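Run: sequence + iron/sulfur cluster -> complex structure.
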Amino acid sequence: MANSDAELVGKILDLKKKRGAVILAHNYQRAEVQDTADFVGDSLELSQKAAGTDAPVIIFCGVHFMAETASILCPDKTVLLPDAKAGCPMANMITVEKLLAKKKELPGVPVVCYVNSSAAVKAESDICCTSANAVKVVESVDAEEILFVPDQYLGNYVSTQTTKKLILWPGYCPTHVKIRAEDISRLRKEHPQAIAIVHPECRPEVIALANHVLSTGGMIRFARQTEASELIVGTEVGLLHRLKKENPSKKFIPASEQAICPNMKLITLEKVLWALEEMAPEVKVPEDIRIRAKRAVDRMLEIGQAEQKVG
Ligand code: 13P
Ligand code: SF4
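>> structure
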């Protein structure tokens, strides 16, 4: 007979203690996985947590590049990704070979890479960024022209917030492009009092209709602080769990019910338990790549977080 969630959680918590593990979960994880984690956050917050933890084992409930970032920052820790197939299709839209070829075409142009990229791509980049600090990172680069990879929509949004010229890579998030401008317009008509907050991975025409453009962590903070009682939320629907839980008196309306990241949903409580039992699947970045990728991640972490917003 299958274990109930309560049984699974009990077993996970027992074994987590024995292994000295910490469970980190991204804001898009299944509700029950978020509720079992020690910390839930956005990509930047999770890398900061990974960098600061004393735990010898990190169970990373997220996608592959996030576990890789933890491995880059904590080479002495065991980083486990409960489903090895949980990748990010956007991160796979650039390879190190293609990046090297582009860099040859653009000698001397620095590279800013979105954290949604492989360790090998980070190793060939000058600095990393997340959705929470992309504008500040780009502003920090001492050049007027920058190659921004791999998210064209985040890159396009950043270029509206800076005087620097960004050369964009044609990558995108298959989940966020499901959110359409028509969805926001219709929901605005149905909920005239609502404020629209969207993720910078959304299409430019969606961003143009939003009140604020925020990382998932930024959305969590904004929802706590705002006096608005209705919010249209333009990102992966997993974020709604935390928004509702932390703000029971406010109403959160998903911009699109279709915005589900199938990779994020691969992580289940069963798989978290198996990862703890088997101490696998482990994500480990080879040392030569890790050292070079760490430079790009460290430069970003020195800059930290600065939310970007529109109008
Ligand atoms: P955040 O860093 O804003 O949580 O975004 C991560 C991500 O993968 C968005 O699709
Ligand atoms: Fe990648 Fe998009 Fe999923 Fe985020 S939501 S992990 S960018 S596919």
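>> summary
The chain has a mean pLDDT of 96. The chain has three domains: 3-88+264-280, 91-172+290-310, 176-254.
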